[in-house]
User: What shape does this take?
Amino acid sequence: MKKLLYQFDTDDLPSVFDNVVGFDGGADHVSAYGGVNAANVGGLVEGAIFTRGLKDKKNTAIFIGGGNMTEGEAVLAAVRKKFFAKFRVSVMFDCNGSNTTASAAVAWLAHGRSLAGKRAVILGGSGPVGQRAAVLLAREGTVVAVTGRKREVVQAACDSIRTRFGTVVEAIEAPTNVERGAAIEGAHIVLATGAAGITLLDEKQWRDNGTLELIADANASPPAGIEGVGQSDRGAAKHGKIIFGSLGFGALKLALHRACIARLFEQNDLLLDTEEIYALAKTMVA
Assistant: This one.
């Protein structure tokens, strides 16, 4: 029985990255659909849940991606609404790599140490990865703040986090490096999750910060999101801080993504979302 993965992407063009990892994770065939939304996904789900007998349903799975977290969550809700009784298949939710990237970054930050009571600041954190990282850092006991260029955008992200997870995150408007430098005063952890091509923090700003202990940059494209952080840094010691670059924890992100895809085909009623993916990530840190 072939393992079939149906990739539902909210963007017009489905992600090639997610498609490749779907195959690498063990799917025999990946069908990628773009422009998927809550209104049109129903027929696709019905095709997935009605075509195979109970013992074979585990060989069909759904992956939900795309750049818009809100639209993706609406698609996930619509997919789950179609399930009933034993007519269901396993689903993975990872819009814009949100869950896998955030889980890999936070798993490394928390590896071998307690983050409880620490203050964490996520720079450029209003997007999917930043939002999920905020939740996971809060789960580890940190007090979390998220920065963004526009107050209304970052506040909306924090409101979404509170509504979805019941987690309170501080919103900080910080459109410039100077303001972001001020935002990390007193912080112990800084994670950059901003858009590619933008340096959110100068090296001097974190080098001379006396409270900072851990720094991670999720930007995989030059220039670095945090100046002075090397892409391949994985627990490197610099200026008295422990540093992680995008490739440093990116290996875990890819391995985690593949492992999640593989797990989808073990049963037909699995949901892999934030908590489930992070729990798996913590077992894979090495």
